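User: I'm curious whether this sequence folds into something compact or stays loose and floppy. Could you predict its structure so I can see for myself?
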Amino acid sequence: MVRPICPKCHSSEFVVESRTGKKVGTGVGTVAGGVAGYTGAVGGMEAGAAIGSFLGPVGAIAGGAIGGLMGALVGASAGGAVGYKVGESIDEARMVYVCNKCHTEIQG
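Assistant: Here's the prediction. I'll summarize afterward.
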């Protein structure tokens, strides 16, 4: 792939693709996935509390907490991965490059 030449400093050595879409998509996807995973984890909390109840109140509390935490982590991971791929598609469609030498944005 041929990188564009910066119109300001005339360098192609420091020109890289802008990754704004990937950064924003990953952040938004992770937060949304974490929230969705946590709300869906209520069932996991209930199941964890039921399983942990064999060990008494401490086991029920620990089981519920672990169930909720696992739901949030799984949701955040899945959301982050989906957000990254969506952001990658946006970046490819925009075709914007940034010169790291003089910080000029270049429309490709």
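Summary: Helices lie at 20-40, 42-52, 57-94. Strands lie at 15-17, 96-99, 105-107.
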